[in-house]
Amino acid sequence: MSNANWEVVIGLEVHCQLMTKTKIFSGAATAYGAEPNTQADTVTLGFPGVLPVLNHDALQMAVKFGLAVDAQVAERSVFARKHYFYPDLPKGYQISQYELPIVANGHLDIELADGSTKRIGITRAHMEEDAGKSVHDAYAGQSGIDLNRAGTPLLEIVSEPDIRSSAEAVSYLKKLHQLVVYLGICDGNMQEGSFRCDCNVSVRPRGQKEFGTRTETKNVNSFRYVEKAIEYEIERQIEVIESGGKIVQETRLFNPDTGETRSMRSKENANDYRYFPDPDLLPVVVTAADVARVRSTMPELPEAKRNRFVEQYGLPKYDATVLTGEAALADYYEAVVSTSGGDPKTCANWVITDLLGALNKLGKEIGDSPVTAPMLAGLVARIADKTISGKIAKDVFEAMLAGEGDADTIIKAKGLVQITDESAIIKAIEDVMAKNPGQLAEYRAGKDKLFGFFVGQAMKATQGKANPDALNRLLKEKLAP
Amino acid sequence: MHTLSIKQLGEALRARKFSSRELTQHYLKRIETLDPQLNSYITVTADQALAAADAADARLARGEGGPLTGIPLGQKDIFCTTGVRTSCASRMLDRFISPYDATIVKKLQAEAGMPMLGKLNMDEFAMGSSNETSWYGPVKNPWDVTRVPGGSSGGSVAAVAAGLAPVATATDTGGSIRQPAALTNLTGIKPTYGRVSRYGMIAFASSLDQAGVVARSAEDAAQVLQAMSGFDPLDSTSMDRPVDDLVAPLGRSIQGLRVGLPREYFADGLDAGVRACIDGAIGELKKLGATFTELSLPNSPLSVPTYYVVAPAEASSNLARFDGVRYGHRSAQAKNLEELYEKSRGEGFGPEVQRRIMIGTYVLSHGYYDAYYLQAQKVRRLIYDDFRRAFEQVDVILGPTATDVAFKLGAKTDDPVSMYLNDIYTIAANLAGIPAMSLPCGFKDGLPVGMQLMGNFFDEAKLLNVAHQYQQVTGWHTQSPKGFE
Which residue ranges does the record assign to the Asn/Gln amidotransferase domain (chain A) (predicted)? Predict the structure, then answer.
């Protein structure tokens, strides 16, 4: 059998670090990258006698997410203890929501390659605390424990097994990533582990109703790795089954260096987590009024923003999609449009082609762009009021990127103001005609192609500053026999 | 000085009849001479006590401070105290020095100005009813040093009964304040769950644990409980409601008070001598105008089995943090991670603690959870409903605190079930979360007998008022053990 005879079934569990200032159950800071154990207070360290108190901001963020995916926000949700022994788990249990999560029954619509959309169910999303980190390479023969991350709030978002390919998985993940960043509840930094994914993958013969046995590949932390890990798992599972073997339900790890997954532990060796409701925390109660309050703080979501960009600015869907890919980029664009007085499509071209192109080369995010929105708006304004031509504007943009100041400063310093004085342009044209009698004769004899030659020469004579429209018009008049 | 009440001590201190330093020194001296017979203190903190006494004297000299300022106390070694060993009577925490203070330590010491004499012995992690499971050895009952003082707050009661502290903190998960108070002729109260902060009190069973006080009278207990109580933002289960005045209502008449006598608490198993003392107390209360009704708490027989599912389940989880990684005992023998856990915990925990961790782990395990833990939670609800119904008819419920007087050291150590049955009358109040107290009501063969009063949620003032009125017409609570007068 070939792969075409198999159907792939994928469900994803995403751990998303919530951007609270302090931990989910204590006042310790959550900032990334601090000296080991400097952000571990007595609660984080699980000292005898300490008690957890829920961080209200984490709850607000979870509710925000629930509203964004059109889910049910539970009026009453419960924290449970999940027990296992590991040195980076200070209390011997993780506080997590188990039977009664804060968010249930939501969905996210993704776009497929053929342009159609597909709805992916979100089974649940629940709050929990992150564990610390074990450091195995810092001390010879010993392991270090860094508990800075322990107690960082996480939202675990569990999808339905609605995903049918690695491409759909990546599309879902990108959409989810965009959403949580838009909502301002997660910084989305995958390298730092703020957004990481467990992939549940199984295959079944096409047409079969029952799911095949699944494996779970843990902690995959980039879109590309997710794609690779899933592809590897699909191939591996089909190969095992086709050669007469059976898939074992197990947890696997992805190795980015080899692109392979390997078994970590099978279900038989799985921990018995002994979940039970945490008696130190009361059930979390969210009233209709609480939900309404959170709803009033919801930002415009990516889809709504894209549709508005198409309507309000008359942009093609592609442009609108790119510009609304990130809230910061959309804000940048809107700032340029509203202050430059330029045409929205021209502004979109500048942002998409010139700005994003440049940022991509520099490896910078929109937030650290050397050309700020007011600077780009200043440039577009000078094109709109015909101070400079679109061509000169490219040079000004390069100069702005190089840190030479804003558009007006550069235009002034380099004397780039467009020549609109027709007598000056006519003088330049006449000079060119006088210097090139041969070409003039040929043109007049019917060699129309030479018009471009004269445009180039006249532009050169004006150091590119001649207004192109005026130059074209005057050149036509003068060259006419 | 050690026979004066809290109120008298406060008045004498404010009148500068003696200083807090003198009073504290007096107790330290008594501890030094008398405690070797009892083993009630794990750690005596003489230097800190005297420094705190001096600070209290300074406050008093400025005309500042409250009714408790300058009066020393003993702290059960389950409460975290900065810079002082907090052992929970376990080898696991033998060298543990807390970097922070429990909320009640802040309230009683820093705010109320009570110097701490030391940390009091207890059953290991509060698991026991005889104070024989302590890593630091058993505590003896000052009324008969061959007998147990009860547990788990055995050090607290022995110290107060013997005049080695005017008052002491204690904790009660299934009777650990009331049973030892009964066995040593003291007044001990476990308030409503959520009334006193659990922050900094080392957890045994979180949904049952509640801090309280053991004292020589209801009046003494009322003053200290008042200072301990109140909402704490650091404890999510603490109640955000104002603290009632517990002292002012003590003088109220109890004419017309409706008292319920639960049939199940007077059934087989109650010693006849104890019964006689309780009957005597009922007679006294009738004279004070109380009326009595027999009632039923039908689910009472399920209290002990329910408790021995819920409490070990929570304990097995709460004690998971003692793993030898960050603090506490770490085995020197471990060769790998698994051994680090096994040996550190195997060496650090005593047999009773290990037994409860195993029971708790079992009842929470996959496949057993529904049959045990979930079922126990349902029964717990039924027990709560029994009390809810009862308090529709009566103001307080009265019964024995323990089935018998103090037993001999070692008498029950090989029979855990008979040991667990010590708490047969006290456990239900913890399961329901209601306040309950024990107070002296007579002697059998020279050993104290206690009676228990249980009240509705947040009715601490009512319980203390009944106890105080009773103590105005009886003298049982004024008796002191021989050799410790």
Answer: 331-479
The CA distances from residue B30 to B7, B77, B281, in Å, are 21, 19, 33
Residue contact B366–A281, C-beta within 8 A: no
- Residue B197 bears catalytic tag: no
Fill in the DSSP letter of residue B245: P
Q: Please list every residue in chain A whose beta carbon sits closer than 8 Å to the beta carbon of residue B201.
A: 49
Answer yes or no: B176 catalytic: yes
Across the interface, do A276 and B201 touch by the CB < 8 Å criterion?
A: no
Inter-CA distances, A480 with A431, A438, A476, Å: 16, 15, 6
Q: Which CATH class is domain B1-485?
A: alpha beta
Chain A residues lying within 8 Å of B207, measured CB to CB: 279
B355 φ/ψ angles, rounded to the nearest 5 degrees: -60, -45
Query: Would you give per-residue pLDDT tens digits along chain A (481 residues)?
Result: 457 899 999 999 999 999 999 999 999 999 888 999 999 999 999 999 999 999 999 999 999 999 999 999 999 999 999 999 999 999 999 999 999 999 999 999 998 988 899 999 999 999 999 999 988 888 888 889 999 999 999 999 999 999 999 999 999 999 999 999 999 999 999 999 999 999 999 999 999 999 999 999 998 999 999 999 999 999 999 999 999 999 999 999 999 999 999 998 776 667 899 999 999 999 999 999 999 999 999 999 999 999 999 999 999 999 999 999 999 999 999 999 999 888 999 999 999 999 999 999 999 989 899 999 999 999 999 888 888 888 889 999 999 999 999 888 888 888 777 777 788 888 888 888 889 888 888 888 888 888 888 888 888 888 888 888 888 888 888 888 7
Q: Which of A45, A49, A54 sits opposite B102 (nearest CB)?
A: A49
Domain residue limits, chain B: 1-485
How would you classify the pairing of strands A260-266 and A250-255? antiparallel
Q: Which residues of A touch B337 (CB under 8 A)?
A: 87
Whether residue A53 and residue B233 make contact (CB cut-off 8 A), yes or no, is yes
Segment 186-245 of chain B within 8 Å of chain A by CB: 198-203, 205-207, 233-237
CATH 1.10.10.410 residue spans of chain A: 422-479
| Residue among B81, B128, B127 at smallest CA distance from B104 | B81
Q: Is residue B29 helix, strand or coil?
A: helix
For residue B292, CA distances in Å to A94, B57, B280 come to 50, 48, 13
* pTM confidence score: 0.90
Would you call B480 a catalytic residue per the annotation?
no
Q: Read out DSSP for B173-241?
A: SSSTTHHHHHHTT-EEEE--TTSB--TTBPPSSTTT-EEEEEESSHHHHHHHHHHHBS--TT-TTS--S
Q: Considering only residues 312 to 371 of chain B, which have any Cβ-Cβ distance to chain A shorter than 8 Å?
A: 313-314, 316-317, 320-323, 325-327, 337, 341, 361, 364-366, 369
Q: Which residue of A has its CA nearest to B194?
A: A280
Catalytic residue among B40, B134, B152, B316: B152
Supply the DSSP symbol for A355: I
A461 closest CA partner among A419, A407, A399: A419
- Say how many CB pairs under 8 Å bridge A and B: 100
Say which CATH class A422-479 falls into: mainly alpha
Task: Round to whole Å and give the CA distance between A311 and A307.
Answer: 6
Report the alpha-carbon angle A139-A145-A151, nearest 5: 160
DSSP-derived 3-state class of residue B295: strand
**Could you tell me which residues are beta bridge partners of residue B261?**
B294
Q: Classify residue A33 by burial, with Cβ atoms within 10 Å: 0-12, 13-18, 19+.
A: exposed
Query: Cβ B323–A53 below 8 Å, yes or no?
Result: no
Name the catalytic one among B20, B40, B156, B176. B176
